[in-house]
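User: Structure please.
Assistant: Input sequence and predicted structure:
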Amino acid sequence: MGMIYAGICAALAVLLFLSRKEEIRAEPDTPALDRYFLKPAQWLYKRLPGEKSRAGGRSGTQLREELQLLYPSGAKERFRRCQVEKLSGLLLVFLAAAVLGGLIRLSGSLDGRLTEDGRLMRNSYGEGEAQVSLTVRGQEAEAGENTAAGENTGTEKAAAGRGDEAEETGGGSDWEEEITVTIPERRYTRQELEDMLPEVRAYLEQEIRGENATLDEVRSALSLPAEAEGYPFQISWRSGNYGLIRTDGTVRNEETAERGEIVELTAVLSCYEDTWEESFSVRVCPPLLSEEEKRRKLLLDRIAAEDEEAAYEDSLRLPEQAEGEELVWTEKRSDDSLLIFLLILAAGAAQYRFADGDLRKRLEKRERQLLLSYPEFISRLTLLMGAGLPVRAAFMRMAADYRKKKERGKNYVYEELQLVCREMESGVTEVEAYEHFGRRCRLPQYRKCAALLVQNLKKGSAGLLAALQEEAEHSFEERKRNAREEGERAGTKLLLPMMMMLAVVMVLILVPACFSFAGM
């Protein structure tokens, strides 16, 4: 595989050299890495067989149509440019794959543990065990290997002949097996470990102090490590007084006398099967308090004393003086008003943000109702005009009927009809009123109807009734199709409730059955 990776890199280098004289400029949106391979890609594109046929096919035709929409004046050049950029990206992928594959193979060869003389290399101290995948082959020993150097060649030829015969007949004993060997890390000798103990003790003396200056004056928590960095020991701790020092390093020195107390702290070092102990004398002293901490401790002690005296009363009196100072107590109350205020503002901002979405939903609902009401509207209009009413009178009649039945619900088509009637009553011409009607409804069906009505006013009523009847028939067919879509949409919405009901029914059936079997 290494030769393949090297061959790909060499081929790309030759391609870069051959295409050095190609003329092509990178677009601003071309990725930086792809720009290096634009010239080789163009060189290849010109010389690959079937350049003209590459523009054909369904995908090529579709790409040309899309490019024609985006670039009406240069679709052919953009098609060639697109193919060159795609080829440039492919060359970049080849280079990345070859380089990464070669690096991974090189790193794998450098990490090999099997030497030429058949030895497996261990990890050094502290690096942990390693796993090595090996392939072992067993071959039948040749007769020439078991003979002395002075034997004649006739015996060797005979052995070779027997070996060839065994290979031909399949009677050889060659085999191959893959095994995984776990190699522990290199171990220290006991003498090497004992030589490290003074260094480990010095390390621990510095480490366990934590934030304390010395072990002779310990006032804050100690740092008791579980291992010494750079050394193979595992460390556990014992304390001579667990009430003062715990094994996690916590120091309980609130009640310690001013002169302090000495505690024997023991580190148990273990490595392999051997253990050693190192002891440290620690003087635990009371904590140093700041002025604020001293004042707080004094006040808490005074309050505790007052609480003890008034233990059987319904309240206790707070101290009024401390160290000659008058004390004024106020209760700190929690105030969540700011949080509530911010939450309400956030809710208002969210409502403001999604108000447009609600408006869009209402517009979609209006358009849906207009679409469903169109067959009824065009049928009534055709019926009234067939009875002899002109368009204006038909609109007035439908608007008047809607006003009488408006309490049944709002219908956007007839609301628009009322608006058309008001416009015509206020002096707007019929042509403008019908055009306004089509624009407000926005659907192509209403625009077509408005166009027919305007054409009727401009060119006469010949053929208008037949056109409206044809439009009414077409609208009813479209209404059937919309009804089928609504039914499919309703079935999809009911799918989740039906699945939930199925799960409930299964639980109602299976739970009693399980209990009955358990009772048996």
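The mean pLDDT is 77.
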